[in-house]
Write a structure and sequence with these properties.
The complex is a heterodimer of chains A (about 240) and B (about 220). Chain A has about 240 residues and is mainly alpha-helical. Chain A has one domain (about 5-230): MetI-like fold (Orthogonal Bundle). Chain A is built from 9 helices and no strands. In chain A, α6 (about 125-155) runs antiparallel to α8 (about 180-210). Chain A is flat, with a radius of gyration of 20 Å. With about 220 residues, chain B is mainly alpha-helical. Helices cover about 80% and strands about 0% of the residues of chain B. Chain B has helices at about 5-45, 50-65, 65-80, 85-110, 115-125, 130-160, 170-180, 185-215. In chain B, α1 (about 5-45) packs across α8 (about 185-215). The longest helix of chain B has about 40 residues, at about 5-45. The termini of chain B are far apart. The chains are: A mainly alpha (about 240), B mainly alpha (about 220). At the A-B interface, α2, α3, α6, α7 and α8 of A face α3, α4, α6, α7 and α8 of B.
């Protein structure tokens, strides 16, 4: 491979990383807002948040991307830059998965903690901010780490819309060289390295956050892993 | 926003064709992933490191890289090696292989959840190892993991549109073709979006019923 082609791949990596960071931020915001809304005391708020989760988790990320690229512009009369369109589609879809993680972690906090907050006459918002979230967030990190890798894999979908990400640069190189084994092996390896780095960073974060609430990070393969296999999932709509 | 019901009715025949292809890919992909996942899970329990280590690395690699790029890899590289399959076959195999790396974890968790007393009883009864697996461990393990496997079938459903990228005419492929021919994007894309939501919602209801029956 020539250096010009490598430059193409580097540009692809940069686009993928940008898309990953932006959509991860959007997805995190959506997860927390929707996840917390699902524990709200008004049923309307709970219902709307649940509806959001079901709809966005029920549809396919790729269909969502097509929808944002082709249906939104004529329907609302504004055209998004591809990077933002990709961010929007991925962020909303993966945010719906993330909201389930947030809801699950919040409901796993010992109910006595919430009752203690009520007894000390904390407002609901103070209870959430000072009691529930600090205990729930460290528990969310392992499933969020899995979701982040899923999101990384999801970013490859925008290449179908012609956005110049890593997968797309692979296709360009294939067309240029008329040879596919080598370039696709490189592309897969690069994705793997990024995913590996992400899991490392998340593991460090978990350690740090759990030390903050006086717990050791989860270790080894236990029944916990079994639960995780079910929730990782960009998976099922079973709650 | 303009909504044209005529476009919807024009699209419907293609929609059913696409749905059929999607469901075929889903069923075949699921079967491959269930079988291969079990093979990986069993290989990971062999006593030698020389089997466990390569299987672990390969499956970890497949799990952490995008299915889309794996599809491209199989679709463009296999013919270079002299193996030519139809796009559908390649796609089904890629989905099955990708998800087998997830189902293997599910199987592993299920196998580990079988109480240790079952193993000890099998040893005490002097059952040969194949019989222990076939008659004692797997029936109990698989029963536990059916709901988790079902979850992955639903996620597989949502990954089948990727087959469009290697020219398979599934639901999304049909919708794209129809849109490009008629310049109507809104209706076909919305129809298949709703179809995905409906199918995965129905599947999750079904799964919940199944879970209740198996667990209790």
């Amino acid at each position: 491979m020539t250096s010009g082609l490598w430059e193409l791949v580097l540009k692809g990596i940069w686009t993928t990383v940008q898309l990953l960071v932006l959509s991860a931020l959007l997805a995190a915001a959506v997860s927390f807002v929707v996840g917390v809304a699902r524990t709200h005391r008004l049923w309307v708020v709970r219902f709307l948040a649940g509806l959001y989760t079901e709809v966005f988790r029920g549809t396919s990320a790729l269909v969502m991307i097509f929808w944002v690229f082709f249906v939104l512009p004529p329907a609302f009369g504004w055209q998004l830059v591809p990077l933002w369109a990709g961010t929007l589609a991925l962020g909303l879809t993966y945010g719906a998965y993330g909201s389930e993680i947030v809801r699950g972690a919040l409901s796993a906090v010992d109910p006595a903690q919430k009752e203690g907050g009520i007894a000390l006459s904390f407002t609901p918002w103070q209870r959430m901010r000072l009691i529930l979230l600090p205990q729930a967030v460290p528990e969310m990190i392992p499933p969020f780490s899995n979701l982040l890798v899923e999101l990384l894999k999801g970013t490859a979908l925008v290449s179908i819309m012609g956005m110049g990400d890593l997968a797309f640069s692979g296709n360009l190189v294939r067309l240029a060289l008329q040879e596919s084994a080598e370039i696709y092996t490189y592309i897969l390896l690069i994705y793997f390295v990024i995913a590996f780095l992400l899991t490392r960073v998340m593991r460090g974060l978990e350690k740090k956050l759990k030390a903050g609430v006086g717990k050791a990070p989860a270790r080894g393969v236990t029944a916990d892993e079994f639960k995780r296999a079910q929730t990782t999932g960009v998976g099922g709509a079973v709650s | 926003m303009k909504w044209d019901w005529n476009a919807v009715s024009d699209f419907m025949p293609y929609f059913w064709d696409g749905l059929l292809v999607t469901l075929q890919a889903l069923v075949l992909g699921s079967l491959i992933s269930f079988a291969l996942g079990l093979v990986w899970a069993l290989l990971m329990r062999t006593p030698t490191r020389w089997v466990r280590w390569p299987v672990g690395v390969v499956t970890e690699f497949i799990r952490n890289t995008p299915l889309l790029v794996q599809l491209f890899f199989l679709f463009y590289v296999l013919p270079e090696w002299g193996l030519t399959f139809s796009a559908m076959t390649t796609g089904v195999f890629a989905i099955g292989l990708h998800y087998s790396t997830y189902t293997m974890q599910v199987y592993r968790a299920g196998i580990e959840a079988v109480p240790v007393g079952q193993w000890e009883a099998a040893t005490a009864l002097n059952l040969p190892i194949t019989r222990t697996w076939r008659m004692v461990i797997l029936p109990q393990a698989i029963r536990r993991v059916v709901p988790a496997l079902g979850n992955y079938v639903i996620s597989m459903l949502k990954d089948t549109p990727m087959l469009m990228a290697i020219t398979v005419l599934d639901m999304l492929g049909r919708a794209r073709l129809f849109s490009q021919e008629n310049f109507q994007f809104t209706e076909p894309l919305t129809v298949i979006g709703v179809a995905f939501i409906l199918i995965s919602y129905l599947a999750s209801l079904l799964l919940r019923a199944l879970e209740r029956r198996l667990v209790h």
